[in-house]
Amino acid sequence: MPRWLCEGSCSAVLGLDHYAPFLLSAFGITLVVLVGYALYLRSRLTGLRRRAQAYSGRNVSAAAPMATTAQAASSAKGPSAP
Amino acid sequence: MTTRVLGYGSLVLLAIATYGIFFVAGPISGEGDAGRIIYFHVPMAWVAFLAFFVVFGASIAYLRTGNPRWDRLGRASAEVGLIFTTLVLVTGAIWGYPIWNTWWTWDPKLTTTLILWFMYLAYVMVRAYAEPPRGPRFAAIVGIVAFVDVPVVYMSSYWWRTLHPPPAIGPLAQAQPSTTIVWILLLSLVAFTVLYAFLVRVRVEIEETDAAVALRGELLSGARA
């Protein structure tokens, strides 16, 4: 257990005993994991929402003519050889 | 709107609980300040049990109805429950070192909790890697079977009396802790429960948005074809 983490100073501020490093380590790990997970979820949701907005910008009817052209060109040539 | 309320609510409640843990609660007798770890270790264990109970219910509902909403709820709750169980194991080890003089021992409570962790890890992996529609169905079966371990974890300190202390509060508690301990534990429990609800809600929202994006992608590629 890293005693340098809280040797004297935080114990004095919080009025904790010599077990302070254990308590603060457990608390710190809990905080970091939960905040990290919440931020990860937030960034994933933001990314997905951005993608959903990008899709809703391109509607299906607008995409159709472009797609039809691409299909005709590839089907005329057939599957390309590697 | 509700997600925001849950998010800010959990922040406020966790801040109050933290104040209670560090400035209101006294050291636990015989454990010193390391004993304060129980104020977040125990509520996180309860919340993990709640999460796995939700997985159990959602899995049964999914197998009965086939509605993907239940699958999303089960998946979200299992992931959040796994995070809480991980923290329970880690904070328990940090508490154990000064009190038991060891980070880990094969005590029945610890062992059954580790088994629980592995079972829900299996759930998350099955759900992530098995293709639908088999993946959600297999995961639901794992979610039902894995829940069997939850009462075993809870009862283990009664069935096999070893190192881990029995529950401090609840129907099976033997000793009566002080009112301050009970209040701070309850406050912490409420704070972590609200946080759990917030995380599950966001996780379900991710699943729903992901499904909507995939559907739109399929529609667009279908229109191109």
Jot down its keywords.
heterodimer, A: 82 residues, mainly alpha, 76% helix, 0% strand, rod-shaped, disordered C terminus, B: 225 residues, Four Helix Bundle (Hemerythrin (Met), subunit A)
* Major β-sheet annotation of chain A: none
Order of helices and strands of chain A: HHH
Shape of chain B: globular
Major sheet of chain B, described briefly? none
At CATH's second level, what is the architecture of chain B?
Up-down Bundle
Tell me roughly what share of residues is in helical segments of chain A: over 70%
Structural class of chain B: mainly alpha
Shape of chain A: rod-shaped
Write the layout of secondary structure elements.
The complex is a heterodimer of chains A (82) and B (225).
Chain A: H1 9-14, H2 20-57, H3 60-77
Chain B: H1 2-24, H2 38-65, H3 68-100, H4 108-129, H5 134-146, H6 149-159, H7 179-224
Helix pairs in contact in B: 1-7, 2-3, 2-5, 2-7, 3-4, 3-5, 3-7, 4-5, 4-6
Care to give the gist of this entry?
Chain A has 82 residues and is mostly helical. Helix content of chain A is 76%, strand content 0%.
Report what the structure shows.
The complex is a heterodimer of chains A (82) and B (225). Chain A is mainly α and 82 residues long. Helix content of chain A is 76%, strand content 0%. Residues 62-82 of chain A have low confidence and may be disordered. Chain B has 225 residues and is mainly alpha-helical. Chain B has one domain: Four Helix Bundle (Hemerythrin (Met), subunit A). Helix content of chain B is 78%, strand content 0%. Chain B has 7 helices and no strands. Chain B has helices spanning 2-24, 38-65, 68-100, 108-129, 134-146, 149-159, 179-224. In chain B, helix 3 (68-100) packs antiparallel against helix 4 (108-129) and helix 4 packs antiparallel against helix 5 (134-146). The longest helix of chain B is centred in the last third of the chain and has 46 residues, at 179-224. Chain A binds chain B through residues 1, 14, 16-20, 22-23, 25-27, 29-30, 33-34, 37-38, 41-42, 44-45, 48-49, 51-52, 55-56, 58, 60-61, 63-64, 66-68, 70-71, and chain B through 18, 21-23, 27, 31-34, 36-37, 40-41, 44, 83, 86-87, 90-91, 94-95, 97-98, 195, 198-199, 202-203, 205-206, 209-210, 212-213, 216-217, 219-221, 223-225.
